[in-house]
Design brief:
Rossmann fold, alpha/beta, 237 residues, 6 helices, 6-stranded parallel beta sheet
Length: 237
Amino acid sequence: MRSDGGVPRRTDPYPRHLTALVLSGSRRSKSLNTRLARLAARHLTVIGVEVTLATLAEFDAPNYDQDAEDASGVPESPARLRDLLASSDAFLIVSPEYNASMPGGLKNLVDWVSRYRPQPFHQQHGLLMSASPSMAGGNRGLWALRVPLEHLGARVYPDMFSLARAHEAFDDVGRLRDEGLTSFFESTIEGFVDLVEARTHYPSLKTAWIEFLGEPHSHATARIDAPSQPTPAAPRN
């Protein structure tokens, strides 16, 4: 064990028997967020988590259109993301900030995936990170991203990591230059994984979560698990 700022951290490597999807919310080949996603995937591997690393460019999908969904179903790319979520114990999204919000392509992908039942995001543990040349590090985009994910029942980890001045933050091998930032980055991931590990291997800790806005419960209003086939959800307006 070691302690950073009074918080004990494990240093003993051991298999955790966990899987995680790490998704960069950027399409750009030289994206700072993709660099941060690679670093997160590397640390997850070090602490014993099996990782699938992907970028938004791998999940092209047309703008959500219910007419298209009715005619052809959910496109292949959102279906693949649904499958990756189903086979993972947790997800980590590293997202850019576009105009104080999330990228439109990422929101569109979440919208497509949300059409499945059972709801793919429901009770999935998620961690959000961002990187930006700005002094805010893309943090405003993460607050926007939390809204649809939590609305769909995801258990988004309270702590988030936003890397400011990210264009200056990495060394030549993709690590963070600043030791203090490295410690905070790694401890955020480790705290998240400890929670996922407890939830996965100690089912008694699981709790049900439903967002109730006062509307009568029906197939049309359900946004979470429903006892039905994994088919698209009810029509939207």
